[in-house]
């Protein structure tokens, strides 16, 4: 019986599917420094990870029993993908499984920001019964998303899901993507009806100048996508969301822009220095925060687990 180590966990439905396929599933959380020894001792065939476990050359070179490395999610920057494939290992991921969940988190941060929920949820428990009218006045300047222009940087699967939601909210959608010239967005409704909207991508500089809201959906990369220069191009009072990867926004430049009012607020699910974000970012009064939970819904985790199970079975059967 082939053995699968799901080192960062796996949904119950994914485990069940793998067992039904005839695999043994191990969900022990093995520390990074003990991983090579554990894999070799237990003759693990498949190593499944999420973002916590790193699969670098040392594991690839020293674990001859491994046949598959799987990433539950989209980005694979914690895996030496090309090196693994050169060594004959299969490397798989689940790029489509969490798109809806990440897109919904973008709008959770947006609604939190435009109605000051990120701050009122901090203040109400401590002073809501003594300073109710003061807080009511402080949070009275909310805005609506309807009619606002959202600029999506990166029109992959998640960017397309963000566009679907935005169109349903009657927002104007503009987008930039080096590799996508036109995206066809189909918006499905509960009654079986749908609409189709074509979005022609534009240069990123144009998006920065026009958008009321900018949301990033790009892979990890060297250098910033949004730095001081890009922030200066944006509208005054722009709103900025990053549920993509830490390090694509220059956080020092962002803090300056928030303090000056150039950026109205930011919503961050990812950070430059995970898992220890800067104290200045965590304490800032204009930032809505979450701890890298874009794909962390029950529905997404079920889809991820089941998709991994199907891919593993197809490769090893």
From TrEMBL:
Keywords of the record: NAD, Oxidoreductase
The keyword Translocase belongs to this UniProt entry's keyword annotation: no
D-isomer specific 2-hydroxyacid dehydrogenase NAD-binding domain location: 110-294
Domain D-isomer specific 2-hydroxyacid dehydrogenase catalytic: 26-316
Domain of life of the native organism: Bacteria
Gene3D superfamilies: NAD(P)-binding Rossmann-like Domain
GO molecular function, one term: NAD binding
Keyword Nucleotidyltransferase included in the entry's annotation: no
Pfam families registered for this protein in UniProt: 2-Hacid_dh (PF00389), 2-Hacid_dh_C (PF02826)
SUPFAM superfamilies: Formate/glycerate dehydrogenase catalytic domain-like, NAD(P)-binding Rossmann-fold domains
InterPro entries the record matches: D-iso_2-hydroxyacid_DH_PdxB, D-isomer_2_OHA_DH_cat_dom, D-isomer_DH_CS, D-isomer_DH_NAD-bd, NAD(P)-bd_dom_sf
Homology family: Belongs to the D-isomer specific 2-hydroxyacid dehydrogenase family.
Listed name of the protein: D-2-hydroxyacid dehydrogenase
Source species: Elizabethkingia bruuniana
């Amino acid at each position: 019986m082939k053995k699968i180590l799901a080192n960062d966990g796996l949904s119950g439905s994914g485990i069940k599917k793998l067992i039904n396929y005839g695999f043994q599933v191990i969900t022990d959380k093995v520390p990074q420094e003990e991983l090579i020894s554990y894999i070799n001792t237990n003759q693990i065939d498949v190593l499944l990870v999420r973002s916590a476990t790193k699969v670098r050359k040392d594991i690839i070179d020293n674990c001859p029993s491994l046949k598959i490395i799987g990433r539950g999610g989209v980005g694979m920057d914690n895996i030496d993908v090309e090196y693994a494939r050169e060594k004959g290992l299969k490397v798989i991921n689940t790029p489509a499984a969490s798109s809806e969940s990440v897109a919904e988190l973008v709008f959770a941060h947006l609604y939190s920001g435009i109605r000051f929920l990120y701050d009122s949820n901090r203040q109400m428990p401590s002073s809501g019964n003594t300073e109710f009218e003061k807080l009511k006045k402080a949070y009275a300047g909310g805005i609506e998303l309807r009619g606002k222009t959202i600029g999506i940087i990166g029109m992959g699967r998640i960017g397309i899901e963000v566009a679907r939601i935005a169109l349903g909210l009657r927002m104007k959608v503009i987008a930039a993507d080096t590799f996508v010239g036109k995206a066809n967005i189909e918006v499905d409704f509960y009654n079986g009806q749908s609409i189709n909207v074509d979005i022609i991508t534009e240069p990123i500089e144009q998006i920065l100048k026009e958008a009321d809201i900018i949301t990033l959906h790009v892979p990890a990369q060297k250098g910033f996508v949004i730095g001081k220069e890009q922030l200066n191009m944006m509208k005054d009072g722009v709103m900025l969301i990053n549920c993509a990867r830490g390090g694509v926004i220059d956080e020092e430049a962002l803090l300056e822009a928030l303090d000056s009012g150039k950026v109205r607020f930011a919503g961050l699910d990812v950070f430059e220095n995970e898992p220890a974000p800067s104290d200045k970012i965590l304490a800032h009064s204009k930032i809505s925060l979450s701890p890298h939970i874009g794909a962390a819904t029950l529905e997404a985790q079920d889809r991820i687990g089941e998709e991994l199970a199907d891919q593993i079975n197809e490769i090893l059967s």
